[in-house]
Design goal:
Length: about 180
């Protein structure tokens, strides 16, 4: 599958730089359904607009198809607040792209240690190469978990959101399948 760079112009037109043509939100949805990786940038500033455009794709599909996103999910996302939404975003990233999530956190922690002076440059580089080397297989580590306290209402709300998101993922996957001839 291809990496497709799309440029968004001031007039909101989207230009596919790979296929050299203007595209619609529906075209972008089709690219993604085919397994392509999409990146959308502002033509003038180069700012990454991918997340915003993907949200527009979902909104467009909701408008055309209706019932894609449960109203309760959208309401909960708004009610949950910025800090909890940030936590949910981190959790989703860890779930959808676990290796990227782990690598990002390894990088951040090693950079903090280097900045504090706990690691010199050569040790920093050695650890980065060692910990982020894709050839090294990670062995599964099992730990015994201590039972947690009663879940808070926020935890219960997050659990409901997870269930709604799983239902949403199933709906999106169903929409992503090509129509039967």
């Amino acid at each position: 599958m291809a990496d497709i760079l799309v440029k968004r112009y001031n007039n909101r037109k989207l230009y596919d730089t790979v296929h050299r043509c203007y595209v619609t939100l529906e075209t972008i949805a089709n690219y993604i359904a085919q397994g392509n990786s999409i990146k959308v940038v502002d033509h003038e500033s180069g700012q990454d607009l991918t997340t915003m455009v993907l949200a527009q794709v979902i909104a467009d599909q909701e408008r055309r198809l209706g019932g894609l996103l449960p109203r309760s999910l959208l309401s909960r996302l708004i009610r949950i607040g910025e800090s909890r939404l940030s936590e949910l975003s981190e959790s989703l990233q860890a779930f959808l792209a676990p290796q990227e999530f782990v690598n990002r956190h390894i990088r951040l922690r090693l950079e903090r240690l280097r900045t504090r002076g706990d690691l010199d440059e050569s040790e920093f580089e050695r650890l980065m190469m060692r910990l982020l080397d894709p050839e090294i297989e990670n062995e599964a580590v099992t730990t015994d978990r201590v039972p947690e306290n009663e879940p808070s209402s926020a935890d219960i709300e997050l659990e409901r959101l997870w269930r709604d998101l799983e239902a949403l993922e199933r709906a999106v996957n169903a929409l992503a399948r090509p129509p039967k001839p």
